[in-house]
From TrEMBL:
Designated name of the protein: Amine oxidase domain-containing protein
SUPFAM superfamilies linked to this entry: FAD/NAD(P)-binding domain
Biased composition annotated in UniProt, kind: Low complexity: 97-113
Region (Disordered): 81-123
Listed GO MF terms: oxidoreductase activity
Organism, as annotated: Streptomyces avermitilis
PANTHER family in alphabetical order: PROTOPORPHYRINOGEN OXIDASE (PTHR42923)
InterPro entries per the UniProt record, alphabetical: Amino_oxidase (IPR002937), FAD/NAD-bd_sf (IPR036188), Zeta_carotene_desat/Oxidored (IPR050464)
Amino acid sequence: MSTTQTRTGMGQVVVIGGGIAGLAAAHRLLDRGARVTVLEASDRLGGKLLPGEIEGVRVDLGAESMLARRPEAVGLAREVGLADRLRPRPPPRRRSGPAAPCAPCPRATSWASRARRPRWPAC
């Protein structure tokens, strides 16, 4: 970010990049009274966050659309009016027991010492 100070307060701030970090920075700076310009190289804002549609259902595309486990991210979503769009992630489904039916125990490899060969439990 580069800043030019003015008599009216924080001044003019240029934010380089319109991804989530740049947009969050611009939002905070606007709250503090700065005049903000966001520069983005692509034809849209959002960075790696990209809206899409799969079989008629709107989805967020990207590695992870928001770290909802971080209170800062949830707070930012609420501040910009997206609180009603937050959805809790369902808990992971876990099962106990073998992943597959018991198979023969693997043989020791040529580099494994016989003294250190693991003892495989009987199924």
